Amino acid sequence: MKNRDQWQSKMGFVLAAAGSAIGLGAIWKFPYMAGTNGGSVFLLLFIISTLGIGLPILLAEFVIGRKGQRDAVSSIKRLAPGKQWQGIGWLGVMISLIILSFYSVVGGWIISYLVRSISMSFEGTGEDFYNRLFETVISNPFEALIGQAIFLLLTIWIVSGGIKGGIERANKWMMPLLFIFFIILAVRSITLDGAIEGLKFLFVPDWSYLTWSTALSALGQAFFTLSVGSAAMMTYASYLSAEQKLGQSALSVSLMNIVISILAGIVIFPAVFSLGFSPNEGPGLVFIILPAVFDQIVFGSFFLIIFFILLLFATLTSSMSMLEIAVAIGIREKYENRKKAAWLIGLITFVIGIPSALSFGILSDVSIAGYSIFDFADMITSKIGMPIGAFLVAIFAGYVLKKQDLQNELNPQVLATWRILIRYIVPIAIAFIFIQGLASL
User: Fold this and answer.
1) What predicted TM-score, i.e. pTM, was given to this entire model?
2) Which Pfam family, just one, is annotated for this protein (predicted)?
């Protein structure tokens, strides 16, 4: 039996956790969620949700994971023996696999676009062309499934390499490149004529969008991008050594997540407004509007390749954590079974994701509660599953964890503030926003 894997360095853990948090949530989902929810107001509510609600829960997951030193289910069971709180871990596994099932579909779209951009095989220009192209990509069952399969194969290959040799190594070069590419694209975007309108949309509030529905969307976005409520951070923290400062790490991950989300807005909205497009295009924003934007700027083909490479990196850094949650439970203490577990769970995820991959094509007429299969999977996880998971984590950390366990993991200053937030503020805020938001859906 092999010894349990651990992060090789503090930076490796922070980059991996930030990679899990950032991903498609920040680069793909944040721009279209902000675009359809008023821009600046959504950004403000997202920042408040991230720091006031998401950060305390992120820290709670870090504490549970490191103290438990096991997979999410076993860690909770170890900290609360004889009780049924390990259901939080199983809920996290279910949520993460559903997210990965439709997340990998988007990963497949990105691979399709990246191949086209590198091979210069776009056979047209303009918004109408890219709108037709997007519909072709997502509705073609062969292309959708092949793309999804390739993306999951990449994810499985990295995760099967372990924590140090797979996930940490991949994040150590993907994350710095992601930041560099983002800065390049942001500088290009804000230098376009008329870019100021996009910056106003992102930073000047339109208070008419201040609604419970927007607040729930912002809360779901904060949970989605921080990967809280799905046991991902609990799993990653279980590979931490005792020397790592959890409060500092949680704050670093939260701030990096906010910065990347804002950078995504700065890359996209100035360019969109500069060239007269609409910001409320929904999920197709980065696949329809951005390619049309890049068509109209100098070296646009080069910047488009950079953008889709960036998007692929970010998607992979998140998908690793989602697969790792289930793999950690699948192998338990039999670490030599990691590769077998990664391939088996990856295959199961692919099968689960087939309906989402086909929901814009041959299953486009199928709906659940008025949602397409893909959109229903997104809604049920980000607006229901993750808030419920986060609420249960807050209750467990605030009322079930022994005070001595908390004192061993957090310094007194952090512990005092965090305990007030996690016991009183966070669960009430989640419950209130959750109930009000569901009523407005």
Assistant:
1) 0.85
2) SNF
**In CATH, what number is assigned to the domain containing residue 30?**
1.10.4160.10
Our count of domains for the chain comes to: 1
Closest CA relative to residue 17, chosen from 242, 174, 230, 249: 249
What CA–CA distance (Å, rounded) separates 162 from 342?
A: 10
Give the separation between CA 413 and CA 438, rounded to whole angstroms: 36
Is residue 135 within 8 A of residue 160, CB to CB? The reply is no
Residue 71 lies in a domain: yes
- The rounded radius of gyration (Å) of the Cα atoms in the chain is 21
CB 372 within 8 A of CB 364: yes
Is 18 within the bounds of a domain?
yes
User: What domain range is 273 assigned to?
Assistant: 10-440
In whole angstroms, what is the distance from residue 126 CA to residue 29 CA?
Answer: 23
Residue 3 lies inside a defined structural domain of this protein? no
pLDDT tens, per residue, the chain with 441 residues: 456 677 877 778 888 877 777 776 777 778 878 888 888 899 999 999 899 888 998 899 988 988 888 888 888 988 888 788 988 989 989 999 999 999 899 999 999 999 988 887 766 666 678 888 888 889 999 999 999 999 999 999 989 888 877 788 887 877 788 788 778 878 888 888 888 988 888 898 888 888 888 888 888 788 777 777 888 888 888 888 777 778 888 888 889 889 888 888 888 888 778 777 777 666 667 787 778 777 777 777 888 888 888 788 888 888 888 898 889 888 876 666 788 999 999 999 999 999 999 999 899 899 898 889 998 998 888 788 888 898 999 999 989 988 887 887 777 778 888 889 999 988 988 888 778 667 766
**Given the structure tokens 């790592």, which residue do they identify?**
244
